[in-house]
Amino acid sequence: MLLRAEVPGNLVRPTSPSTSRSRPATSVSDALATRRSVRAFLDRPVDAKLIRDIVQKAARAPSGGNLQPWRIWIVAGEPLERLRRLMDEKLASSPRGEGSEYHVYPPDLASPYADRRFAVGEALYRSLGIPREDRDARRRWFARNWRFFDAPVGLFCFVDRSMGPPQWADLGMYLQSVMLLLREAGLDSCPQEAWALFPRTIADFLSAPDGLMLFCGMAIGEADPEAPVNSFPTARAPLEEFATFIGLEQAETTIPFGGKL
Ligand SMILES: Cc1cc2nc3c(=O)[nH]c(=O)nc-3n(C[C@H](O)[C@H](O)[C@H](O)COP(=O)(O)O)c2cc1C
Fold it and tell me: Domains of the chain by range and CATH?
C-alpha cells in the first residue's frame, strides 16, 4: 500500500485501513466486463506515475486524421480539495449550474433512450435507498458528482470549439481507453457529464484556454467494494436490437487459407 510520503507528486489522500483493491483486469474482455461506473471510492491514494502512464497510453486511441482532439487535465491532492470547496460555494449560489454549452441529452429524448435513462436512474437511487418522491435527497446525492464522488483523482476532458461530432466521438475512444487501462491497473472510474453544467467555473479553475470546451469529467480511484451504489446491474440491449449482420455466415466459409473470422 502506498504511504503518504512514498507517493510522488501530490496525488495524496489520507490512507485508510486495508481493503482489497478491485481485481485487476487480465484481458481486454475482462477490462470491458469489469468496468462499471463507480460512484463510491476508497479513501486511498493513487500512484501519480500510474495515472500519468495511463493518460499517455490511452492516446494510442484512434482519431479521424490522427487529430487527437482530446485535451486532458488531471486534478488531485490539495488542488482537488480546493476545487471541492469552490464547488460547494458554486452549488450554494447556482444549484442548477451555469448552463451547459452543449445538450447533454437531446431535448426530446424518446424511447427507447429515455426508458434506458430512466431505468438506470431508478436502479441507482434504489441502490441508495432514495425513493423517487424524495427529490431533495436525490438532488443532494447527485451533487456528489461535483466532488468526483470523493475519488482521489479527477480528470477533465476538453475539446477545441472548432471540432465537430467526429472529433467528439474520438474523445469517447480516448476516454474508454483510459477506463480500460484503469481496470487493468485495478482502478475504477466514473465518466461524468455532470461537470458540463459548470463549464465556466471549471475552465477558470484550470485556466483552460477560451478556445476549449469542457466535455466531461471522470472520477478515478479504487472502488469501495462495500458500497451498494457500486454493484447495481445496468442492462444492455440484446444484440439484435442494435446490430445487423449481413453476409457474415458466408464470410466464415469463404475466407481463404482456411482462416475464420
Ligand atoms: C460521457 C458519459 C457521461 C456520464 N455522466 C455521468 C454523470 O454525470 N454522473 C454519473 O453518475 N454517471 C455518468 N455516466 C455514467 C452512465 O450513467 C453509465 O455509463 C451508464 O449508466 C452505464 O452504466 P455503467 O457505466 O456502470 O456500465 C456517464 C457516462 C458517460 C459515458
Answer: 4-11+26-103+147-232 (3.40.109.10)
